[in-house]
Amino acid sequence: MNNTYGELIKITTFGESHGLVIGAIIDGYFSNKYIIEKSIQEKLNLRKPFTSFFSTQRKELDKVKIFTGVFNSKTTGCPILLLIKNHDNKSLDYGNISKNFRPGHADITYQLKYNYRDFRGGGRSSARETACRVASGALFNAILFNKGILIRSYIKRIGFLKINFNYWNKILNRFFVNIFFLKELKEYINNIKNSSNASSAEIVTIVNGIKFGYGDPLYKKIESIISNYILSINAVKSIFFGINFKNKNSYSIKDEISKFGFLSNNNGGILGGITNGQPLVIKMLFKPTSSTSKSIKTIDNFFIELNSKTYGRHDPCVGLRAIPVVESMLSTIIINKILKNKIYE
């Protein structure tokens, strides 16, 4: 398995959905930087489960604890160890599928590749692992903010329901539970949940303050690196940069240039795999949650066909808690590019 990401600052995550703990080791981080658990916790609270009726009802505190690499609230330059305990892991919910493969999950691929698997909530393949990414990415927020880099995201669409962008401007794309004050959206998610179905979600992220020069042609283009990181997030099935070509003719994607700069941003801030100084515009599609309580055809470890149900607690739309994960992965990419390119020195 490959459990490490990052170029100069490397992050290794560990732990399983129903194990004792999950966590991360951050190696190569700056020394003499202030870090407090409270700032990391604020980001984790945006991702943690049981924040509303419309997320999984697994009641995890997601309380982070720093064990190494920090002294008197400042980093020492040594590896930083972050731990999060699992509290509400009801492994018995998965007893009925211990020998069955859940369609849409990594059960069958893990079994075929490793000849063994942790069936409790998907083990290592569970989206529970993304809490480690959020906690790690939170270390970079203050540094990026001080350099004028701002990462903001919003949910553009849930299933067939398009969300007005003006609502997201009002709530600053945070505290997602607030979106459920929108009656139409609340009813839509409620119907999905009550019918034991799940919904997809489209998320748009805009990164302001990015200077030119990130990315290396030809095989380490900035969009290639971003795609690698974003597609590693559970349930992400596609990613797109800039405009949607389906709604544009072939002559409108070129960004004209004046002496004052670009006149448009159809390419989403990237040309030739290198950032051009404009805001990055990234769109991602999250698939519907694979686990529902509906009976569905599958096979067991002996390749016998049967019908199976998943009784665990799951989100009707995983995209509703995905924004902190997306932004943490982007933060990791950007902080590594700052170090590598030394543009800001």
Automatic annotation (TrEMBL):
Matches recorded under SUPFAM superfamilies: Chorismate synthase, AroC
PROSITE patterns for this protein: CHORISMATE_SYNTHASE_2, CHORISMATE_SYNTHASE_3
Domain of life of the source: Bacteria
GO cellular component, as recorded: cytosol
One Pfam entry name: Chorismate_synt
Pathway the protein acts in: Metabolic intermediate biosynthesis; chorismate biosynthesis; chorismate from D-erythrose 4-phosphate and phosphoenolpyruvate: step 7/7
Cofactor(s) needed by this chain: FMNH2
Enzyme category, top tier: lyase
Enzyme Commission code(s) on record: 4.2.3.5
Gene3D superfamilies hit by this protein: Chorismate synthase AroC (3.60.150.10)
Keywords: Amino-acid biosynthesis, Aromatic amino acid biosynthesis, Lyase
Annotated GO MF terms: chorismate synthase activity; FMN binding
GO biological process, one term: amino acid biosynthetic process
Claim: Lyase is one of the keywords in the record: yes
UniProt-listed InterPro entries: Chorismate_synth, Chorismate_synth_AroC_sf, Chorismate_synthase_CS
Family: Belongs to the chorismate synthase family.
Name this protein carries in UniProt: Chorismate synthase
Source lineage: Bacteria, Pseudomonadati, Pseudomonadota, Gammaproteobacteria, Oceanospirillales
